[in-house]
Amino acid sequence: CYAGLNVKIVGSDPGVGAELNGGTHMALEDMGIMRTLPGMTVFEPTDSVQLRKALPAIVEHEGPVYIRLFRRQAENVFDDDYEFDLGKADLLRDGSDVTLIASGVCVANALQAAETLAQEGVTARVLNIHTIKPIDADAVIKAASETGALVTAENHNVIGGLGSAVAEVLAEQRPTPLERVGVKDHFGQVGKAPYLMGVFGITAADIAKAARKAIARK
What we know:
Helix content: 25-40%
Strand order of the largest sheet: 4-6-5-8-9
Number of helices: 7
Radius of gyration: 16 Å
Low-confidence stretches: none
Mean pLDDT: 96
Strand content: 15-25%
Number of strands: 9
Distance between the termini: 40 Å
Largest sheet: 5 strands, mixed
Structural class: alpha/beta
C-alpha cells in the first residue's frame, strides 16, 4: 500500500470457515486491519459465482486488493447472469421497513431472515456489500433514507468490519437506527460452521431479531 503496488492478496477461511482449526486460525479481525491500510481495496465474495465474476475486475483494478475468501462451498446466491461491479452494492431484495446489509456467507442468512420477516408482514430490503472498502456509501444512504432502519450482518468482529464501515457512513451523512450482527469482540473457537454461527449470533434468526429491534427504534 505504501508503494501503491498492484498486488492482490488472498486470505482464506475467515471466521466460521476455519471450523475445527479453532480460534488460533479463525480470522475475525482481518477486515478491520485491511480497512485501515491507505489505498487498500477490501473485497469479500458471497459465493463461487460472484467470485468468478469478480476476479477479472479485480485483476484489471490498479492497486492493492485484499480478497477475503471463504474456502469451502458457500450457499449459492447468484446465478450465471449476475453482473459484478467492484465497489457497488447488489440489491438482492427490495423492501421498505428495514434494510439488511450483509457480506460473505451472511448474505444467505440475511435473505432467509427477510423471508421470516415477510411472514410477519415486514418487508426487508437486502443489500450485499461485497466491497467493504471503498464502501458503496450511496447505497447505504439510499437505504437509510428509504427504509429508516438498518442491520448489518458479517462473519467478522462487529468492530472494524462491515458494521463499522456502515456506521461511519451513517454517522457522517445520515444518522439512522443501526443494529450490528457479528462476533461480539471475542476470539473464535472449535466447531462446525452452523454451530459457530449460532454461538457467534450470526444466524438468520439473529438477523431477524436485530431487524425487529432496529424497526422499533425508528
